[in-house]
């Protein structure tokens, strides 16, 4: 399924996932049902929370978080531009305004609390903290900032499933935690996501909104519950499938062992790239045991051209990526909100030079060495 010998991502599926999917197909129940409930319970237990709500994608998780908080026209949400577009889209779809803030720098690609503070106005209702690459954003400062101004704190944990931090398990520190289980993620189920919330009323609203805000679910009707139902809110179909949740349940059990292998790959990358002049490896000052290591990002010095390095890697059949083009520079956000180059100087500078290298549980020592050698070759003078 890939043109590369060493792909950027490499989710691992085996007989356990195949058997779990087969069991679902034999059951005859494909939409959210008992397997989904089991996955929700297991994920909540792994996080150490009372309950979790499985949804159809990480984007759905973010959108439901915004809707459950009642955000809409006239409201503003401060969030990093350095993220996949889904976070800003979830805000914009509600009618609220995404207000983009800068990241700390090449060493830390998460939201800068000081810059976020400078963007707060009387219209601000929430802050989105994105744990870039599975590394913890400055939750101490961001939580303090949110509490000081009476704002909701949404944790975008798309890169950080079941990830510990000094402040607590990521996604459980703020008001709402949103997770993604897209095909490339550490916990991969094709499409899927999860939402947790500290306020049970918010969590219950999220659960209702994911299924059209029906007062009686299809599963309840199937079990002999009332045939008629009411609708008391504007909801959507953000339910996951039993097939996806069956895969997710198996992947959840495999996550700890897969994380150890990611950590080993990161350790080897750091060692092999440490001597390259001008190269920055974000979060390299943190112990390798911290974080989910969804991405292995590097930030190149000005004299190393990213496109040329990507061409070199491509010729060696090694995939690389850019995570992410800044959201505030996309056409929609430039035109709708009057943004453009110069709005976020730190983000723009870093993202002109950022490159993601392959990282997944299958990245053993030989593959890491091969990638690191190709990257290092870009520093050698040509004759």
Q: What's the Cα radius of gyration?
A: 21 Å
**What percentage of residues falls in helices of 4 or more residues?**
25-40%
Write down the CATH topology of the largest domain: Aspartate Aminotransferase, domain 2
CATH architecture of the largest domain: 3-Layer(aba) Sandwich
The CATH superfamily of the largest domain turns out to be: Type I PLP-dependent aspartate aminotransferase-like (Major domain)
* Poorly predicted residue ranges: none
Q: Give the percentage of residues in beta strands.
A: 5-15%
For the termini, the CA-CA separation is 37 Å
Strands across the major sheet, in which order? 1-9-8-7-6-2-3
Spell out the helices and strands N to C.
HHEHEHEEEHEHEEEHHHEHHHEH
Structural class, by secondary structure, is alpha/beta
Number of domains: 2
Count of separate DSSP helical elements: 13
Average predicted local confidence, pLDDT: 95
Number of strands: 11
Biggest sheet details: 7 strands, mixed
Protein name: DegT/DnrJ/EryC1/StrS aminotransferase family protein
Cofactor: pyridoxal 5'-phosphate
GO molecular function, one term: transaminase activity
Family: Belongs to the DegT/DnrJ/EryC1 family. L-glutamine:2-deoxy-scyllo-inosose/scyllo-inosose aminotransferase subfamily.
